[in-house]
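Researcher: Please predict.
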Amino acid sequence: MNQVEGLVIREAAGEDFIQIRPLIVKRAEELKLSDGGISDINKLVRDYCSKPAKFYCLVCELDTKVIGYVIYTFGFCVHQGRSISLDEFYVVPDYRKAAQLLLFKRIVEITHNFGHLRLAWLSSKNSLEMHEFWVKHGTTVHSEDQGYLQYRLAKYTIQERHCLSSN
C-alpha cells in the first residue's frame, strides 16, 4: 500500500458535506447509477446533524480536502444482534491505494469497539475493483440481488483479521 503523508480519518462535520456531496455524485457516475435521488447538501447536513442523527459519516482528508468518505448507520436484527450497515464507501481514484484500507479499517474498528456482531453492506456488481478489495479483506458475499452483492464481515473476522492483527 502506498503511504501518503498527512492522511486524516475523522468524523465528518456539517460543513464537510460541501465536499462530500460531489463525491457521492461522482461515485454514482462511476458505477453507472442514477444520481437523481441524491439528497441536496441541506438535507444531508440536516439529517447528519439531527438528534439523533439519521446517519453517521467518516471522512478521509488530505490537506483539508475530503478525498473519501463512509456513510453508515446502526442496526439491529433479532437473529444477529447489533450491526453497522455501510451505506456509502468511496475514495477518489488517485488515493484509493493509500486511503481505502485505512478508511475501511476505521469503520471495522468502530464496529468492534461498539461490540456489534457484524458489518454489512451492498455494493454494485458494476464495481469489480471494490469486490476484489472487499474479498481480499475478509468479507463474504452473503447474497446477490438485482445488480447488487450483499457483503458481510462477521464478529470473528473483525476480531481476528482487523483488530488483533496488523494487516
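Model: The longest helix spans residues 96-113.
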